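Hi R.,

Here's the chain you asked about this morning:
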Amino acid sequence: MKFKELNLSSTTLKGLEKMGFETPTEIQRLTITHLLQDNKDFVGQAQTGTGKTAAFCLPLIEYLKNDTKPLRALILAPTRELAHQIAKEFDRLAYFSKLKAAVVVGGESYDKQISKIKSKGANVVIGTPGRVIDLMKRKVLSFKESQYLILDEADEMLKMGFYEAIQEIIKEFNKNRYSWMFSATMPKEIKKLIQSELKDPHFVNVTPKSISKEEIEQSLYLVKERFHLEALTRLIKSSPDMYAMVFCQTKRQCDEYGAELIGRGYKAEILHGDMGQGQRNRIMTAFKAKKVPLLICTDVAARGIDVSNLSHVINIGVPREVENYIHRIGRTGRAGEKGIALSIVDVRDLIRVRAIEKHIGRKLNVKKLPTVDALKTGLVEDELTRMETLVSAISGKKEKFKIDPTFKLYNQELGHLSKDDILKLTFSWMFNRDLRRFDDLSQIEQNIEDRMLISRKRNRKRGSGGPQNAKKFNRNRTQRKTR
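And the predicted structure, written out as tokens:
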């Protein structure tokens, strides 16, 4: 099915054509079809990266294209990044209409946001709950005449503690509003919000195909927690062309791992919620342009990041919720490409790993880290490859090869050494620190086979003995009670 078969207007189709979009994703097809046929409250469930933004922006543009009054709709998002991403896509989709959108998020100038709302007459406001409420209190925003309320990444907003804020915003709308909600998961709080605030909504649930069709290679490395950073560097070293998001559990871990990787010479950036908006924008621009191949981040900071060509997603530890694992790995393996998701976990994480395996219906591929010998060889080979151009230049130009005059000092100190001694000295200077580190941390993996064997033995022991053991246990418990 093509977008032109979805009963969209010619102006909207022109916007899609300008963006190069022809075929809708499943969540887009189902959402647009239902909302254009029957404008009512709506709940869409789909994972990150499935095209939810266009799924709600396109019907909204269709309904508002002839209604250019200000503040006709509010789109709420959990993070600044996602709000800006939605606004960018809305503007592109509504390019041939007269609709205008304004972004209102924390960490940015009040004056600029207020000016865009008042002087430019924004039809749609896209914002985060905190800043929206601030502007409501300042009497800048009022949604009493607004028709549409859209909640994107609703589950994440509730996880971030915005339940009461969302309720306060909803009260500002009249009862005849239309509410559209999009969420990757359906926890109890979301169900409660749907039951209390939405009127007989239509539900659409899109199963994450990238998991079921095994388009993502998912692997597991069982490593002692204190060596997780070393394991990460081994995996990065083994894939020189890696373009990846590395998910940490906390902001502190982000800072520590990012600083260590940068200190070891890797091109990496750190992204978490404590950073200013300008800094976050700069980091994302560099990462999207592949000027920086590694982004060390938290789940919250990564919401709304539209990067579709990642080679890897790496988890440091296992997220507490299975759905977060699916969100993370869904960022690789898009557009028909094979994705790679790697998880570095401690033995204490195995319970969560089993929950993930049960949810996705398959076992994660348990692997061994690249060996120390392989890493040593790779380290030397990589450096030699980088030196090839220099060696060729010296060999070709020989005496004419230009070098700084201070080379005389170097030559005075080392000129008496033999060729063999010079090579040994150069090798030691270039590689010894990393090679010693590889040797010192050669035993970082936990013995997977032994751990699994112990776990199975414990399970058999707990389940053995049948009625006799049960009777013995009950008899002992009775004796203890009567003493």
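The CA atoms of residues 125 and 162 lie 18 Å apart.

Let me know if you need anything else.
M.
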